[in-house]
């Protein structure tokens, strides 16, 4: 097992419960907490600020925001503000979003690779406290800089991680940022090709894949009752394989299975629809692409991801006892 471990929180709990879990994870030696921002549910920034305010040393990351819906000036100012709250503890995890959700809210994801490159380029310069003029395909700014009225004026140490899935985005990630957030709902061997692609990109900037941090989101359902843990992950997979097609593709899930689930689920999906459709998700798929079962079974599966290049498991509780999950992977 890795001596690094992180917690992933999303939207299926009371926000105040999340604060308690983050404090408990910090006490138990977790390195970081990552807050999701995926569908039209909770945004990442508000919970991140809350986590930062009630902790002392755990890192706080966005897992991941998208690079389309926040103006680049606001994006940089947001992370500067978070860094004011928790200096040196904030991580900007950012991704390219996906369709149909982006399209449904009026976003045209034209040239997503170029859009991400421009976002990272300008974001880095602004957080370095530079005055920036930049005219690209997507971003146009003239003589802007972060205006610090109160607080530190020096460059901010906010590492940028891209949540990459496709080969082209993965290669560019290796070239231009500090780390990658490797995707979830994939088998451990998915990482082999991902690392090869990262290395190809890293070499373009004079680095190696070892220079790129590689935390990985892992669906992790832990319960002393094996069957209960499996069922929790099965419900989660039902939801995500239908509504995030890029994940289904990366997971190697057949189009037939996805179509069967999509024929039942609406948007947003109801609990009743998920219960009805979950039986289309094969049990062997749950075992293949999640770390689900008893505490020992979950530890064994997470270790497979680490063996295949994950530097820090980011554990996504699919349901049940979050404190049991934290205790299962505690570092102290």
Order of helices and strands: EHEHEEHEHHEEEHEHEHHHHHEHEH
Helix content class: 40-55%
Give the total of domains: 2
- Class by alpha and beta content: alpha/beta
* Main beta sheet: 10 strands, parallel
Unreliable spans:
none
Write down the CATH topology of the largest domain.
Answer: TIM Barrel
Span of the ends, CA to CA: 14 Å
CATH superfamily of the largest domain: Luciferase-like domain
Describe the structure.
- The protein is of the alpha/beta class and 332 residues long.
- The mean pLDDT is 94.
- The protein folds into 2 domains: 6-221 and 310-328, Luciferase-like domain (TIM Barrel); 225-293, no CATH class.
- Strand 8 (160-162), helix 6 and strand 9 (179-180) form a beta-alpha-beta unit.
- The strands form 2 sheets. Strands 1, 2, 3, 4, 5, 8, 9, 10, 11 and 12 form a 10-stranded parallel β-sheet that branches. Strands 6-7 form a two-stranded antiparallel sheet.
- It is globular.
- The chain has 14 helices and 12 strands.
């Amino acid at each position: 097992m890795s001596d690094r471990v992180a917690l992933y929180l999303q939207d299926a709990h009371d926000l105040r419960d999340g604060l308690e879990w983050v404090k408990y994870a910090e006490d138990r030696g977790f390195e970081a907490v990552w807050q999701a921002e995926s569908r039209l549910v909770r945004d990442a920034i508000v919970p991140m600020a809350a986590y930062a305010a009630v902790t002392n040393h755990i890192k706080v990351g966005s897992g991941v925001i998208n690079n389309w819906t926040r103006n680049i000036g606001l994006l940089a100012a947001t992370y500067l503000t978070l860094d004011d709250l928790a200096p040196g503890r904030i991580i900007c995890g950012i991704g390219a979003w996906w369709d149909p959700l982006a399209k449904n809210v009026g976003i045209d994801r034209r040239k997503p690779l170029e859009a991400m490159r421009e976002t990272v380029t300008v974001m880095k310069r602004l957080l370095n406290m530079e005055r920036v003029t930049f005219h690209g395909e997507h971003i146009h700014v003239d003589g802007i800089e972060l205006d610090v009225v109160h607080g530190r004026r020096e460059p901010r140490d906010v590492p940028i991680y891209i949540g990459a899935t496709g080969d082209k985005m993965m290669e560019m990630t290796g070239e231009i940022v500090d780390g990658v957030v490797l995707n979830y709902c994939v088998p451990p061997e998915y990482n082999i090709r991902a690392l090869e692609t990262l290395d190809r990109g890293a070499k373009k900037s004079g680095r190696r894949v070892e220079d790129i941090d590689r935390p990985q989101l892992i669906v992790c359902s832990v319960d002393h009752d094996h069957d209960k843990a499996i069922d929790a992950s099965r419900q989660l997979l039902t939801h995500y394989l239908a509504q995030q097609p890029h994940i289904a593709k990366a997971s190697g899930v057949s189009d037939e299975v996805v179509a069967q689930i999509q024929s039942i689920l609406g948007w947003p999906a109801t609990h009743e629809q998920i219960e009805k459709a979950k039986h289309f998700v094969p049990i062997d798929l749950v075992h293949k692409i999640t770390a689900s079962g008893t505490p020992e079974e979950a530890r064994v599966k997470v270790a497979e991801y680490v063996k295949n290049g994950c530097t820090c498991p980011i554990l996504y509780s699919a349901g049940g006892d979050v404190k049991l999950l934290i205790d299962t992977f505690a570092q102290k």
